[in-house]
Design a protein that fits this description.
This protein is of the alpha+beta class. The chain has one domain. Helices cover 16% and strands 31% of the residues. The strands form 2 sheets. Strands 1, 2, 5, 6, 7, 8, 9, 10 and 11 form a 9-stranded mixed β-sheet that branches. A hairpin with a 5-residue loop joins strand 10 and strand 11. The longest helix has 16 residues.
Length: 228
């Protein structure tokens, strides 16, 4: 994280208005929100350095994604086939990578072992990721950005740097970029990089924290398979 972090205002972050959660609840008649309704940015294939971000006129190509990370989860999921059809529910899943949906410890599962995935790789059969709930300017609904397990440690190091500066993750504007790398088998993949480019004022940080908390409270997480 650069030392030249500047203080910003919430210009463009319309969701940080005090009545945003009330508006969402009123329009939804207090029905819970499903995470499946949020636009999701998945990890690009082939080591691409651009994101494909859903937009109102179709997917848009962007070199970076910037916004406030309201919250995040660390889901994992297992499918019996190595190449499931998109939208196919996983055979097993966990929202925190610790305990499966049926109460079993992930650490004791054979599909959590390296090399358990078919195909002659050292990968795990149970797919891990990090799902970031990111609020962008000019939109009150966040997007979900999925971070592959190959960049999970990079994200955790970013969190640690924020902790060192006593900055909650929702108190900064985070910029996410991609760079191309190659694994031991010669296959290209995308590496995620994280940078805190702006720091919110105390009032803005409090509003962001309150908005994130309010949004998570009305999410229908119990019925969502967020690892899919």
């Amino acid at each position: 994280m650069s030392e030249a972090v500047i203080t910003t205002t919430n210009k463009g972050y319309v969701a940080l208005n005090n009545n945003t959660i009330d508006i969402i609840k009123e329009n939804l008649k207090n029905q819970p929100i499903s995470l499946q309704l949020f636009d999701t940015v998945k990890s690009p294939a082939g080591g691409s350095t651009v994101f494909s971000v859903p937009g109102i006129a179709g997917d848009e190509t962007e070199k970076s994604i910037s916004g406030i990370i309201l919250d995040y989860t660390t889901p994992r999921a297992y499918w019996e086939t190595t190449d499931p059809v998109e939208g196919t529910p996983p055979t097993c899943y966990s929202k925190d990578s610790l305990v499966s949906f049926d109460g079993k410890a992930c650490s004791h599962c054979p599909f959590n072992d390296f090399g358990s995935r078919d195909g002659g790789t050292n990968a795990k059969a149970c797919k891990e990721s990090v799902a970031l709930l990111i609020l962008r300017p000019d939109n009150i609904m966040p997007i979900i950005v999925r971070i592959p397990v190959s960049s999970k440690l990079i994200f955790q190091r970013y969190l640690t740097r924020l902790i060192g500066k006593m900055l909650p993750i929702s108190s900064v504007v985070t910029k996410i970029t991609l760079e191309k790398s190659t694994n031991k088998s010669g296959q290209p993949y995308s590496v995620y990089n994280f940078e805190a480019v702006e720091v919110l004022s105390d009032d803005e940080a409090a509003n962001a924290k309150a908005f994130g908390k309010g949004l998570m409270e009305i999410l229908a997480t119990e019925s969502d398979r967020v690892a899919s």
